[in-house]
Amino acid sequence: MNTQQPTAAPDADAERKHRARTGVIARQLDQIAPGTARVRTVPVTTNRDGEQRVATWVALDDALGGPVEADREAHRAARGLLRRMFPAADWTRPQVYDAITGDLALDEPTMPEELHR
Fold first, then answer.
1. What is the pLDDT of residue 115?
2. How many whole angstroms separate alpha carbon 54 and alpha carbon 97?
3. Which of 11, 20, 36, 96 has the most CB atoms around it within 10 Å of its CB?
4. Which residues does the chain have with pLDDT short of 50?
5. What is residue 1's predicted lDDT score, i.e. its pLDDT?
């Protein structure tokens, strides 16, 4: 008699994939710049020789929010990794990636609730 094995719910599959991708990214970031827990990217416009160019400022932070010591190549590699892992993200806007939770979000300044009045 054939019995069907229960299949994982779509939410469980999505969660498992998210955890796996988060682990891969965290390991690769740690190889690029040990201790990296957060990556912030900000597109900036520069003026080089009278020509406007868009560059990306990248900050690598540890779990306490302090900067991770890394060279220019490490910053470039971290940005490239995130762009490959999140191709649909809007990289023309500031982004922040949390390597602990695996979340990529817009990195926009927010105002404390009590100042909204």
1. 73
2. 21
3. 36
4. 1, 3
5. 47
pLDDT at res. 46 = 87
- HEC-encoded secondary structure of the chain: CCCCCCCCCHHHHHHHHHHHHHHHHHHHHHHHCCCCCEEEEEEEEEEECCEEEEEEEEEEECCCCCECCCCHHHHHHHHHHHHHHCCCCCCCCCEEEECCCCEEEECCCCCCHHHCC
> Which whole-number Å values give the CA distances from 22 to 2, 41, 89, in the listed order?
37, 18, 16
C-alpha distances out from residue 31 to 27, 71, 82, Å: 6, 13, 14
Q: State residue 12's pLDDT score.
A: 86
- Which tokens belong to 79? 């940005």
- Answer yes or no: are the C-beta atoms of 78 and 32 closer than 8 Å: yes
pLDDT, residue 79, reads: 97
Beta carbons of 74 and 100 less than 8 angstroms apart: no
Buried b (16+ CB within 10 A) or exposed e, 24-61: ebbebbeebbebbbbbebeeeeeeeeeeeeeebebbbb
